[in-house]
Amino acid sequence: MTFTRATLLGGIAATLAATAVFAASHANVEGAIKARQSHMQLYAFNLGILGNMAKGEVAFDADAAQAAADNLAALAAISQAAYWPEGSDADSVEGTKALPAIWESGSDIGAKVAAMTEAADAMAAAAGSLEGVQGAMGALGGACGGCHQTYRQTN
Question: N or C: which end of the chain has fewer CB within 10 A?
Answer without folding.
Answer: C
